[in-house]
Amino acid sequence: MCSDRKEKLTVRRLLSNITFVLKYAMKLDKWLVVLVFSAFTICGLVYALFDSLFLKMFIEILSDTNKNLRESLIFVLIGMIFVEIGEIVQLLTDNYARARFVKIAGSIQADFIKKAADIDLICYDQNKYFDDFVIAASQAEEMIINGVMSTARIIGTMTTILALGALIMTINPLIAIFPVAGFFINMITRFQITKLEYEYEIVRKKVMRKADYSKRVFYQPEYAKEIKLSNIEIPLRKQFEAAIDEITDEARIAGRKIAILSLINWIVVFTMFSFFFVPMYLGYLALVKMSIGLSDAAAMNNAQGEVRNNLDGLNYALVDFQKVGQFAERFRRFIEYEIKIEKAAGSKKIPEEKAVLEIKNMFFRYDGADKDTLRNISMAIKPGERVAIVGENGAGKTTFIKLLMRLYDVTSGSICYGGEDIRNFATEEYRNIFGTVFQDYQLYGISLADNVKMDCANEQDRTIIEKALEKADFTEKLNRLPKGIDTEMTREFNEEGTMLSGGEAQKVAISRMFAKTNQMSIAILDEPSSALDPFAEHTLTKNMMECAKDAAVIFISHRLSTTRDADRIYMFENGEIIEEGTHDELMKLDGKYKRMFEKQAHYYKNSIL
Amino acid sequence: MEKKKKEMNMAESMKYLLKTIWKADKGCVIFSFYKNCSEEIFVSFFFVYMTQKIYECIEKKSPYSQLAKVVIIFCLLHICIHIGSAFYTYNIRLKTPIVYRYIFDKVITKATTIEITRYEQPDFYDKFSRSLDECLNKAMDGLSNLTRSVGAAMSALAALLIIARVDPVLIIFVFPPVLGAFAFGVKENQQEYQLRKEETYDLRVMEYVKRVFYEKKYAGEIRLYKIRNILFGKHKESYEKRYQIHKKYRKKIAFYQFIRIVFFVGMTLFGTYIYVTYVIKTTGESKIGAYVAMLSGIGFVSWQVKESVHNGIEAGKCCLFMNNLKEFLEYQSKSTDGGTKKIQGLIGDISFHNVSFTYEGGKSKVIDDLTFTIRKGEHIALVGENGAGKTTLVKLLMGLYPVSEGKIIADGCDIREFEPKEYHSRFGTVFQDLQIFALPLGENVLMKEPKSEAEKQLVIDSLRKAQFGDTLQSLKNGINTMITKEFDEDGFVCSGGQAQKIAIARVFAKNPDVVILDEPSSALDPIAEYNMYHNMMQVSEGKTVFFISHRLSSARIADKIYFLEKGKIKESGTHNELIELNGSYAQMFRLQAQNYQESVPENYINQSRVGEELHV
């Protein structure tokens, strides 16, 4: 979708990008690059000269009655040995390079993910950056391999063309006209064809996405129930059929043009310039003008063919070159992105003791948005306090806690911890004071222990982890796991991995906080119990509060019963705090909070009539 | 032995591939064979025979007109072949969608008859979902590779004939490369295959780690915890391991290539040049042109043989994908022998008789010997802990799962006797894991295209009742708004709560006999939740309603509550009865209710509850 976006690069920028890629490759494996470049040059030369110069000399020796069998055979043997050496160089380099490229691709990917882990979170919310990430991620390996290979190919073909050019010049310079003219005509028609194919491909991709989507729904497990119970099959099939009809029409129009252009290209470039003009001209020289013999004719024929092939190769290599330049553009933009929040070193030390978190007149607006997501928020949270954030869907609650953890930076106003602006702390150290359970928690394809610790769990951690899981009411499930806390989670890449249900996964996410109890001075709980049954919810809420007893607790919940005991409740609406106070105060205030609470409490009351 | 078996499979799947495409479109198969064979065979005449003729003309100093005649005839033929190829280029573009339609029409038709339990088995995704996605590309690639392989083989044969005409002895020199291609080319391919297989795991790990770092949903946790250390480690370990694997196999492959190219192909190279030198030098020089042309002829044959073997193997690889398609299409579903009975009027009473259910391969019963009856029009709440079997119970009821033991009777008739489609249509359901489709909003609600004004109005009313009215008003295209950005840049992306509301609107629009709501309000804020329940109860007057919810406030408005534990009904009755019983339900309710009631200590509630309820 966005990758279709054409990006125009200046030639200078393109070259600078290629240089960047080559430098990168040299840094990772200097010898490989040198080896590939030399191998391409050597092999290109050997094969080209074998087909032309060697052939010419071979025919001359055969026709020369002065040369006896022994001398002739020695000549043949020497030629053969050269070819064999070329073959050996080629196959060894090829296999060696393929293996090394795996390593290089791995290193560049590692550089990529390390950078990705430090890119400011805000970039993920901006489509422009995000597209660059994804594209850079998917193309990094291809970029570096193609960068080295296409450069090698260009060097190789250039050398070959020069050598063959010199040979042709010594016999008959006119011959060179045919491959060169053919090359230009090919380039022009090919360009048209490629353009048509590219345009068709874009249309095809767009249309087929619909067809693909419609049919895929039918065999994806998550949709199976709806398909069975409803008639959604009918509109989906219609969408499928419509897409097929549309693409058939498109194919008819584009196909006709492409076929005609291809036909012209084949006839002119291949039939006329390669197989008609050249033999006719060489025949004319040999039979009418009598200026060359069979050896020259054969050598010329092959040499011009080789030149044509090499020019074609050069053409493709240049296309690749351009692609590499474009990949590199995104990759560079990504790798050169200046990180603002993450990795900030900070000038101040985090207070040793738990301290007050104070938010002063904070505003926040996403880049490019036309209104503030949060407006004029002020509050102070002391250690040991319980603060609840409530409000309707979309009121800005989750954005608020992200700001507290400095996943985003405030647009104006400030957040201070222990009286110091949090921007003055080292980000990593600052975040360490939080224990967080996210609404959209994730499980990772690593062991359960690591999933709880969220770092490499060592031997001492095992008891902490087991205790944390116990507090999260996970023990029963833990006992049924094949390898206990070493069981691998998710089936991302291990068929034997364990899949957890929504409730179980939530318990694991909560246990992360329990495992962090000692270091934590602020706990943040964003809808931590949405998937739990009432018993589990009760137990876990109790445990969470106990575990965070000295720490400040900030929690978001739609279940107002859980927020009731908070020291303070903040009601958010459209990015602003509209009500604040204890439960009793807010009930007395008779505002939005009261309305919300009463709606929910309605059916819990003793009589509902 | 095992190798033989695999080849059998390949041959079979090739046959299956040809048969499938043939049935979809005969022209597609014919054109592919025609194009590749005609082109390839002509190429051998063109390169080998024409070169020979030209060299001969020059060598023998024949008149220029003779050479011109040869060149002109061949070039005219060449143009004819081009016309055929252009025709193919045009046609194959037209045929591909036809084949696609044919294959996936079958897949879709089949998919709707496969039982849900099969879908939910863990291997289903790996086996079908992933491979079916690639199936068409693989089918067309397979056909193209197969025809190219046949074409190259025929071309090699044609070239051999031309060579034999010049000197039959030269034929001998064709054998080493052919032998090499079959013996060692196949070995190379096996090694490549092994290599791919061995690195799959590590490749998946690398892809996974990469994805974790660029997908938005992981971004927050990555920054707050130190989990990156583990993932970096895993990534490094994987690519180091892949490098070791590649090194190991590349060594072997290089060895086989060495033998094949340097030894077998080299033998021919040496052999032919030495033979030609010998013949010319010992017998005179009359046929230099022809022999020299044949030198490249032999090179051409060994190249074509290699291509043929290579394409054949590639075709085989593609064809193996067809096994998954075949298996999918020929999958025998167990419960397809659904009944044929029509339902008269609304579904009435529903009763479970000793119903048990165990997942295939599962050890314990998820539903264990349940017996109960639900009267028409009753509102039933199913409550219990996570994993008690609530969702499974409603799936059994809807006939999505087959009962393992016992039977479910609706209207005095075993539900297996009803026509499945008809029976399913009687239910309106909001699932916990509801799905939104990349279709216009109207179709997402009505589950078909709203055509008449009445239908459009129904969609709008349903959305309003589902508390989606405000959002609907903000949508420029109203119910024609495309949902998701899948196909439309301006498509509407729903939040969790909005998706839930759309799913609820489906039930309002369908007006079914039985309504099933499985955690329908988990993502809704309290006010939206309250209104949704209120509306739902209004429209379901006289309908049977099941709801599953962890928020017990909704259970309270039910006519009857079933408390499930480990697949059994532990308690049942009205809210008041269950509170009086003072069992698990009462305990659960009190846990949740305590904070909504006046601030009284928990133990006080426990003591006073029973007494209070008596007053009501």
From TrEMBL, chain A:
Protein's UniProt keywords contain Iron-sulfur: no
GO cellular component: plasma membrane
Membrane-spanning intervals of the chain: 31-50, 71-92, 161-185, 258-282
MF-aspect GO terms: ABC-type oligopeptide transporter activity; ATP binding; ATP hydrolysis activity
Subcellular location: Cell membrane
Chief location bin: membrane
Top-rank lineage group of the source organism: Bacteria
Presence of the UniProt keyword Transport in the record: no
Coiled-coil residue windows: none
Any single Pfam family the record assigns to this protein: ABC_tran
Keywords: ATP-binding, Membrane, Nucleotide-binding, Transmembrane, Transmembrane helix
InterPro entries: AAA+_ATPase, ABC1_TM_sf, ABC_transporter-like_ATP-bd, ABC_transporter-like_CS, P-loop_NTPase, Type_1_exporter
Record PANTHER family: ATP-BINDING CASSETTE SUB-FAMILY B MEMBER 10, MITOCHONDRIAL, ATP-DEPENDENT PERMEASE MDL1, MITOCHONDRIAL
Stated name of the protein: ATP-binding cassette, subfamily B
Species annotation: Anaeromicropila populeti
Upper classification of the organism: Bacteria, Bacillati, Bacillota, Clostridia, Lachnospirales
Automatic annotation (TrEMBL), chain B:
Domain ABC transporter: start-end pairs: 350-591
Membrane-topology annotation of the record: Multi-pass membrane protein
Intracellular or extracellular location(s): Cell membrane
SUPFAM superfamilies: ABC transporter transmembrane region (SSF90123), P-loop containing nucleoside triphosphate hydrolases (SSF52540)
GO MF entry, a single one: ATP hydrolysis activity
Primary site of residence: membrane
Pfam families linked to this entry: ABC_tran
Protein name (Swiss-Prot/TrEMBL): ATP-binding cassette, subfamily B
Organism for this UniProt entry: Anaeromicropila populeti
Organism placement in taxonomy: Bacteria, Bacillati, Bacillota, Clostridia, Lachnospirales
